[in-house]
Write a structure and sequence with these properties.
Elements (H helix, E strand, L loop, with lengths): L1 H27 L11 E7 L3 E21 L5 E6 L6 E2 L4 E5 L2 H34 L6 H34 L1 E3 L4 E3 L9 E2 L8 E16 H13 L10 E5 L5 E11 L9 E8 L11 E17 L3 E3 L5 E6 L5 E6 L3 E3 L2 E4 L8 E3 L12 E8 L5 E3 L9
Parallel strand pairs: 1-20
Antiparallel strand pairs: 1-19, 2-9, 2-13, 3-5, 3-8, 4-7, 5-6, 7-9, 9-12, 10-11, 10-13, 11-12, 13-18, 14-15, 15-16, 15-19, 17-18, 20-21
Helix pairs in contact: 2-3
């Protein structure tokens, strides 16, 4: 009973102290109720208008600069395979040797026929000369005409024999199947002793020229129309025919040599609505191989505008570009841009921004419009990462 009497006053004292502390906190709180949070810090980039490159990132495939299927033009057995499969060969190098015994014999026979035909010409010429002298003194006109025909026939026989010899020599030379240009060979589809026939359907091998190499790029017809309109209006300057083209390979690495435009298909696919652009690249080390998938960055021209990093932008339901900015009162506002083009890893816009505007590049997804923020100026490097600008100390007095 005594302990209960002692505890009750002690408990009453604690309750009074708690109420006093609560009243003090309530008195210190603002009139709105709960304590206000400090403005959230956000990374911003200060906008500055300048001439920027207009780029387009396009998918593409590598295609050999030249490709030919090696086929025989004469019939015979393969006597020799003179190249290493998958190796580089030079124009004129012998790839296959077809058995040539019969072709050498044909050449010898044609030479003999030519010699035989040539022998008859002097006699025919002498006979014609004799009848020319006697045509008015004993020889008839018919005999003279016959002598002339005999000479012409002998000359025709010689020409025919020469053509037969030339044809036989060509066939003999065709027993050596040569590379038509510098390139890289593929696997041979025949072995020693195999019989091949002239102009057969199956190729003996395939030869590809890889340096330089073609890159076939695909772009939409919509982009083509927009670009033409931009050049026509003078908004974009430059010559697209001199566009610089850079490649990124399948492993994500940049391919160092730059390429140039070779041609563009003057037709749009009826099924995909795209058209083809062909670029040519030096490929001295055969790094790019036919069939490889690549992505190309094509610099088409230049335009004055503001860069919005892709990481700082989104698109609304209508597909329009949107980005958030910090206003003069340090409150967030969203801006929409109906026209935008690509410039590297950025969007390039020309309207809706002024020099000195502050673009939010980090954390904007969780910030509502009109929210108060604390801007921290940063820069965005080529890799797309933000780097805080160093603070400049005030000059000492």
């Amino acid at each position: 009973m005594t302990r209960r009497k002692l505890l009750l006053p002690l408990l009453f004292t604690v309750l009074l102290a708690s109420c006093s502390d609560s009243d003090q906190q309530t008195a210190n709180a603002p009139a709105g109720g709960a304590p206000q949070k400090p403005p959230q810090a956000v990374s911003v980039v200060v906008m500055q208008k300048a001439e920027r490159p207009i780029t387009s990132i396009l998918p593409g495939r590598a295609v050999a600069f030249q490709t030919t299927q090696i086929r025989p033009r004469v019939t015979g057995a393969i006597r020799e395979i003179s190249f290493k499969e998958g190796s580089e060969v030079k124009a004129g190098d012998i790839l296959y040797q077809i058995e040539d015994n019969l072709y050498e014999a044909t050449v010898a026979q044609a030479r003999a026929s030519l010699s035989k035909a040539e022998v008859s010409i002097p006699a025919a010429q002498a006979n014609l000369t004799r009848y020319e002298r006697l045509v008015n003194s004993g020889a008839t006109q018919i005999e003279y005409e016959n002598a002339k025909v005999t000479l012409l026939q002998a000359q025709a026989d010689v020409a025919q024999a020469q053509a037969a010899l030339q044809s036989a020599e060509i066939d003999l030379d065709l027993t050596k199947i040569r590379a038509p240009f510098d390139g890289v060979t593929t696997i041979s589809n025949v072995s020693l002793g195999n019989i091949v026939t002239a102009n057969q359907t199956d190729a003996l091998s395939t030869l590809r020229k890889l340096d330089p190499i073609y890159i076939d790029l695909i772009d939409s017809s919509t982009n083509l129309l927009e670009l033409r309109a931009a050049f026509a209006s003078g908004r974009v300057t430059g010559d697209p025919r001199n566009a610089e083209i850079r490649l990124r390979l399948e492993d994500g690495k940049a391919y160092e040599p730059a390429g140039k435009l070779d041609m563009s298909e003057m037709a749009v696919s009826e099924t995909t609505g795209t058209f083809q652009i062909r670029a040519v690249f030096p490929n001295p080390d055969n790094i790019v191989l036919p069939g490889m998938y690549v992505r190309a960055t094509v610099t088409l021209g230049n335009e004055n505008g503001y860069l919005i990093p892709q990481r700082a932008a989104t698109r609304n339901a209508r597909g329009e570009l949107t980005a958030k900015f910090v206003g003069a009162d340090n409150k967030v506002e969203t801006r929409t841009f109906t026209v935008s083009t690509t410039s590297g890893n950025n969007w390039l816009v020309t309207d809706g921004i002024a020099d000195g505007d502050r673009l939010i590049v980090d954390g904007f997804q969780w910030i509502a419009d009109a929210a108060a923020v604390q801007p921290v100026e940063v820069t965005v490097n080529e890799q797309g990462f933000t780097v805080e600008k160093p603070k400049v100390d005030a000059p000492k007095p």
